[in-house]
Design a protein that fits this description.
heterodimer, A: 551 residues, alpha+beta, D-Maltodextrin-Binding Protein, domain 2, Dipeptide-binding Protein, domain 1, Dipeptide-binding Protein, domain 3, 3 domains, 9-stranded mixed β-sheet, 4-stranded mixed β-sheet, 16 helices, B: 281 residues, mainly alpha, MetI-like fold
Chain lengths: 551, 281
């Protein structure tokens, strides 16, 4: 699944094996040591309901608190049974049978049963709830069938085949059907302890967590996790250097360079991530934009011209200090299997861009560009305030477009205002936005490419596809999601990538590298490529005793 | 203190004031004449000279996007130094009218204004500004955005001065000359405009001078949040953001230039203010 973020994240590439030995020895340490892990969230979580997660902070909370049937191990990239001890996919990807773990209880003591699995999946697939998690399971219209086939077994049958069905359950945190605490009752290693908006989220150890280490000690080792809301990355870095924070899950390139000079053993660059830095234009039909501007943004030639004009190599060199790769489409260059090798990055040539603009009826009038009706081409691009990478990228784009005679007005907004504009009021013209991709599989992008999806951001929640190419992408995405043949799926998704490159609904700028830092006192940390990168094994992390005493 | 001592002190104060005024005038002149002093544009990106040190070509080096720091400092000074007084003038005028009227009219008007001022001062300013800025139209040019930013500061900064002016007006209302004027049958509006407001001038002037550095710093704070002046237009707030990177400051001390200039200008304004306060009415 793709979620909107305030900055770049995650990566593929060589995985650093730090802490592997400590991980093996981890069981020897007393499980009830008074230790607290501390790191930062960029923003307040928008929701604590795991089924409604669509941004990064809420996703982090869901990962740490939600119990899932199957977990994708971020380190080995293998699926592992969690609440399901066994599972079997059948009927060409339409049906999945789970053997559930016995004797598991929610954090409030409510027993975990197959009814909880059925309840959760009905919620996920409920059209009224608009759960972003549900998009990955929607390969055909219709409702999901749920059935308890035994005291500890469940069967789910979907209306159509779902590709990589088992891996989709990594995002589905099981809710209790009977607990009075609703989504506050969790099955993950931690539960929500305290939340002070703008300050911190405190997660406490789930006393009923089912997992134990190899020596029989109950997990997690940590007593609590304090997620401090900190938008200022300089302060985050300063606190990490002082030892007040144990990890930084994502580092800015500039900070990475500084920290690597001072603490070379604490930082890791895992190469290009799966994440996107994108620009998109408002194509919503009933948005409060002047009609002539909507026509610009709905023009493929206009969007492609803008894409051609942006010099991505400069963004990589100047903004990311080389810690990024030029993006060619919705698949990161790190995702070798699914990447369409025929795609080429945009030229960055003004002549190509101007030729495309002329095809769309634009012309130069003095130093300005005007459309066929004589309107001067001027539009705004919004992004979230306080993100230096975005601010610098915007400044570069501004100058790139100025060469064509386009006046770009840069506006930075606080993140809630930005989300309000792009998701509800649609009162914006274009956006620069980061996306975190937490899945190698293209089915994880269903929530973006389906025209009916909420994250089909340039024109979301369409009842019927607004354009022929969107209808084709819908069909291809559903087809790849339904197919069980990897090569057939690859062919479908390569076609999607080709259409996206031709139509340019989103301008893919760069895939930032996965940069992270882990403090020397954090034990059992083994940074991985997929997100969350540094605390994917939070239940086995420990904070060193000397640090605890210092705190 | 004997007469000579007083003269010496006066001489010293006058000299300080003269120096402060000269420095301020020089800063304003340099910012207005930026186009003559440097041939670089504040927006021009020399992408092959990223983070360059000071040189004959770039007197204060270039920033992280290859823009000439010196040009940006001059143009940023123009923005901050010209618009902050304008915002201060606006807020002082609003404060003068509201505070003066409340003090003059007294009774329920005074209570309403006092309550409103208390309420206004208790508002979380930062969030209010963030919210107001977020509600403004997006498609505004950088010049318009800077005007809006300072207009907002001016419109929202009246409450503190209004409280002081109200107290001053209240004192004046009970003075003999206003009682006499009132007894002579002079209309109330004339009393307010011709007799009360002119006598509030020292307070208004002091509030104006206090507000100028306050608004410069407020814009700098908004700039630190990325909510002040829009790119590519520079302001002191935008320039000061570079100082967040403390290790860069140690390696490239010339990036402290905007902070040094801000300290000098605010210091000079304070000196002028002190002289204004001590001047006889």
């Amino acid at each position: 699944m793709l979620i909107r973020t305030t900055a770049s994240r995650s990566a593929l590439g060589k995985v650093f094996i730090r802490g592997a030995i400590a991980m093996l020895l981890g069981g020897a340490v007393m499980a009830n040591a008074a230790n607290e892990l501390r790191f930062c969230l960029r923003l307040d979580p928008k929701t604590f309901n795991p089924l409604l997660v669509e941004e990064e902070s809420s996703g982090d909370i869901r990962y740490l608190t939600g119990g899932v049937l199957i977990r994708l191990n971020r380190y080995t990239k293998e699926l592992e049974g969690e609440l399901a001890t066994r599972w079997k996919v059948s009927e060409n990807g339409r049906r999945i049978d789970f053997e559930l773990r016995r004797g598991v209880h929610f954090s409030d003591g409510t027993p975990f049963t197959c009814q909880d699995v059925a309840y959760t999946m009905r919620q996920v697939m409920d059209p009224a709830l608009h759960s972003p998690v549900g998009d990955s399971f929607r390969s055909a219209p219709g409702a999901v069938q749920t059935q308890c086939t035994g005291p500890s077994s469940a069967m789910l049958r979907f209306p159509g085949p779902v590709a990589a069905l088992a891996s989709q359950f990594d995002q589905v945190a099981i809710l209790s059907a009977s607990s009075p605490r609703k989504e506050a009752a969790v099955l993950g290693p931690f539960e929500l302890g305290e939340y002070k908006p703008g300050e911190y989220v405190l997660l406490r150890r789930n006393p009923n967590y089912w997992k134990r280490d190899a020596n029989g000690h109950p997990l997690p080792y940590l007593d609590s996790i304090r997620l401090e809301i900190q938008q200022n990355r300089e302060l985050e870095l300063l606190r990490f250097r002082r030892g007040e924070l144990d990890l930084i899950d994502k580092l800015d390139p500039e900070m990475f360079d500084r920290l690597s000079a001072e603490m070379p053993h604490a930082v890791m660059d895992a190469g290009p991530s799966l994440d996107w830095e994108t620009v998109f234009f408002n194509q919503v039909q009933n948005s409060p934009l002047p009609e002539y501007k909507r026509r610009w943004f709905q023009s493929t030639d206009f969007r492609r011209a803008i894409s051609e004009a942006i010099r991505r190599a400069d963004i990589v060199r100047i903004v990311y200090h080389g810690h990024a790769r030029v993006a060619v489409g919705p698949v990161s260059v790190a995702n070798h299997f699914w990447l369409n090798p025929a795609l080429q990055p945009s030229s960055g040539l003004d002549t190509t861009a101007l030729a495309q603009l002329q095809r769309a009826g634009f012309r130069r009038s003095g130093s300005a560009l005007v459309d066929s009706a004589g309107h001067k081409v001027e539009f705004s691009m919004i992004s979230n305030a306080g993100n230096k990478l975005h601010e610098r990228t915007l400044a570069l784009i501004q100058q790139d477009l100025a060469r064509l005679g386009i006046q770009l007005n840069v506006v930075t907004l606080d993140f809630p205002s930005l989300i309000e504009r792009i998701s509800r009021s649609f009162n914006y013209e274009s956006v620069l936005m980061s996306w975190t991709n937490i899945d190698l599989d293209p089915s994880g992008q269903m929530n973006v490419w389906l025209s009916s999806a909420a994250n089909h951001q340039w024109n979301p929640n369409q009842k019927t596809p607004a354009t022929a190419w969107e209808a084709e992408v819908d069909q291809l995405m559903l087809a790849q999601n339904a197919s069980q043949d990897p090569n057939q799926r690859k062919a479908y998704f390569e076609k999607v990538q080709q259409i996206v490159a031709e139509q340019a609904p989103m301008l893919f700028l760069v895939n930032p590298n996965a940069l992270s830092a882990v403090g020397p006192n954090l034990k059992n940390a083994a940074p991985a490529v997929l997100t969350p990168r540094t605390y994917w094994n939070a239940e086995r992390l420990q904070v060193g005793a000397n640090l605890v005493s210092r705190r | 203190m004997n007469k000579r001592g007083v003269m010496n002190l006066f001489g010293t104060m006058a000299l300080k004031q003269q120096i402060a005024l000269a420095v301020l005038a020089a800063a304003v002149a340099a910012s207005l004449g930026a186009g003559w002093i440097t041939h670089h544009s504040y927006a021009e990106q020399s992408r092959e000279f990223i983070g360059a040190p000071p040189s004959a070509q770039f007197w204060l080096g270039t920033d992280e996007l290859g823009r000439d720091r010196f040009a940006r400092l001059l143009y940023g000074t123009r923005v901050s130094l010209l618009l902050a007084p304008a915002a201060a003038l606006l807020s002082t005028l609003i404060a003068g009218l509201i505070g003066g009227a409340a003090g003059y009219l007294g009774g329920r008007w005074e209570r309403v204004v006092t309550g409103s001022v208390d309420l206004f001062l208790s508002l979380p300013w930062l969030f209010l500004l963030l919210a107001v800025r977020a509600l403004l139209p997006l498609n505004t040019s950088p010049v318009t955005s800077v005007a809006i930013t300072f207009l907002l500061l001016g419109c929202l900064g009246w409450a503190g001065p209004a409280r002081i002016i109200r107290a001053g007006a209240r004192t004046l209302v009970n003075s003999d000359y206003l009682v006499l004027a009132s007894a002579c049958g002079i209309p109330r509006w004339r009393l307010f405009w011709r007799h009360l407001l002119p006598n509030l001038r020292p307070i208004l002037l002091a509030q104006f001078w206090i507000s100028v550095p306050l608004f410069i710093l407020s814009e700098a704070n908004l700039g630190l949040l990325g909510l002040g002046v829009a790119e590519p237009l520079p302001s002191w707030g935008a320039l000061l953001r570079e100082l967040e990177n403390y290790s860069a400051v140690l390696q490239n001390p010339w990036i402290l230039a905007p902070a040094v200039l801000l300290v000098i200008v605010v210091g000079c304004l304070q000196l002028v203010l002190r002289t204004e306060e001590s001047a006889p009415c």
